[in-house]
Specification:
about 475 residues; 5-stranded mixed sheet; 7-stranded mixed sheet; 3 domains; 19 helices; Jelly Rolls; about 35% helix; alpha+beta
Length: about 475
């Protein structure tokens, strides 16, 4: 398989005899600027419209390739049809392979291969969009630690995994407890029937109707190096779910309207997924997979994945722009740390993610899942310290991320969450949490790589590194 516009890696310039490199001639004075600047700023972030881009593509071979970068036309589409995939529903009028440019211009587009275009910046995203995770897993020389998979009773899970902060995969739980959900979320079409055709869902930065996103899912040619991922916090928010494996969620004392976002419907095509992150607000999480296969890669607290740079407060994470780019560039280095844990989660299995663990997920097939964050006995002390000392990093609270508020107001409003949570926690469990709350109030917390470090100032009783066991 070769690049549809004929782009080759820059190294091929030195291997091809009689190389016809058209960059300098085709760009003129602009050839002094790197490809990244020309594409990201001159073309993608500028105010050039579709007509100007089409005219510019006629200037030279290299400009033709530059002006057909998919990310540029995806941005043009988002600007032309804001927060909507409506044009994808009308693709029947197009006679060629569907692409973002044809959706904007409403004119069929056929890619022309250009000779003499060498660019790693253009070739690498295409390579990430066409290769699979399996290609890199087969060639690895270091074997990661396997994440345990087992059918176990709730007592064993709580004792051996949740209380010890160890990840695992629960087998047979969905079939035994949620067979009705498994039958409703096996295919994308069933998701639409369950949610309703007029239901609006959150698809990354856009809120679209389910039929629009479903149309996008069915057009694989629109899926770039990082396909759009549905991660909706409202679709199943009112669903009454309970499992004996997760009997306690202390954030529930806040009520659904006050607690941070905690449950998401997750739908995505092959190669979509989540880049490395730690679940918000020091919570534990579970991910129930109804359909498909997911590849999970995890590292324990205190071990930052190679190629990932968290901010000082842990609120932001900088990493590779696409999942496959991280796998291609950094996965071998992660294996060499000796701290990699991974597994492939199958339909009907539940992944348990302890508080503080770094993890990334790539869908090996089309996937439908339900995930939820919660506060249990093993991490309630961590959550309290997080809310008390990491106000800037608190996320998912309605009204607390308002862009119109200045920094100090945001911190003040997020700071209220600790007071509200601790007060309601003590009221709901009288005699159980007073000492714990007082300890957190009097502690000085420091954090390294997203994991809560032992407090510097202690009161008698609980150590920060130990789980707080209520029952």
């Amino acid at each position: 398989m070769s690049h549809p516009y004929g782009v080759q890696p820059e190294g091929n310039r030195f291997l091809n005899s009689g190389c016809d490199d058209c960059r300098d001639r085709g760009l003129g004075t602009l050839a002094r600027l790197p490809d990244s600047f020309l594409i990201d700023h001159l073309l993608e972030d500028s105010y050039l419209g579709p007509v100007c881009l089409c005219r510019l593509s006629r200037v030279s071979r290299v400009f033709y390739v530059y002006c057909h970068v998919e990310s540029i036309w995806r941005w043009q589409y988002m600007r032309t049809f804001p927060a909507s995939f409506q044009a994808i529903l009308e693709e029947a009028t197009l006679t060629s392979t569907l692409c973002w440019k044809s959706l904007v211009t409403r004119v069929p587009h056929v890619a022309l291969r250009m000779r003499g275009v060498y660019s790693d910046y253009l070739f690498h995203p295409w390579l990430c969009a066409t290769c699979g995770v399996a290609d890199h897993l087969e060639g690895r020389t270091v074997t990661p630690h396997p994440i345990p998979k087992a059918a176990m009773d709730p007592a064993t899970f709580l004792r051996e995994y949740e209380s010890k902060g160890r990840p695992c995969v629960l087998q047979g739980v969905i079939q035994a407890n949620w067979q009705h959900l498994l039958e409703k979320f096996e295919t994308f079409s069933q998701v639409g029937e369950t949610l309703g055709q007029n239901r609006r869902v959150q698809c990354e930065a856009m809120c679209v109707t389910w039929p629009e996103y479903y149309a996008y899912l069915n057009h694989r040619e629109l899926h770039s190096e990082r396909p759009l991922y549905l991660f909706d916090p409202e679709a199943l928010r009112d669903l009454n779910l309970s499992l004996p494996y997760f009997p306690h969620d202390f954030f529930s004392v806040l009520g659904k309207d006050t607690r941070p976002q905690y449950r998401w419907l997750v739908v995505g095509p092959e190669r979509s997924g989540s880049s490395f992150h730690i679940d918000p607000n020091a919570t534990n999480a579970w991910n129930a997979l109804f359909s498909g296969k997911k590849w999970w890669l995890m590292l324990p607290p205190g071990v930052t994945p190679p190629g990932v740079k968290p901010s000082a407060d842990g609120g932001d994470v900088t990493t590779s722009p696409s999942l496959m780019e991280w796998v291609m560039n950094w996965y071998p280095a992660a294996l060499r740390t000796g701290h990699c844990y991974e597994t492939v989660c199958e339909a009907g299995e539940i992944m348990y993610i302890p508080s503080g663990w770094w993890h990334m997920v790539i869908n090996l097939t089309d996937c439908i899942a339900l995930t939820q964050n919660y506060v249990g006995p093993s991490n309630v002390a961590k959550v309290l310290r997080f809310l008390r000392h990491k106000k800037r990093a608190i996320t998912g609270c309605g009204g607390m991320d308002d862009d119109e508020l200045d920094g100090q107001d945001v911190i003040a409003r997020r700071g209220e969450l600790f007071d509200v949570f601790s007060t309601k926690l003590i009221k709901a469990f009288p005699g159980k949490y007073e000492e714990l709350v007082e300890q957190v109030k009097g502690s000085v917390s420091c954090e390294l790589d997203g994991s809560i470090a032992p407090v510097q100032k202690k009161r008698k009783g609980l150590r920060a590194s130990e789980p707080f066991t209520l029952f």
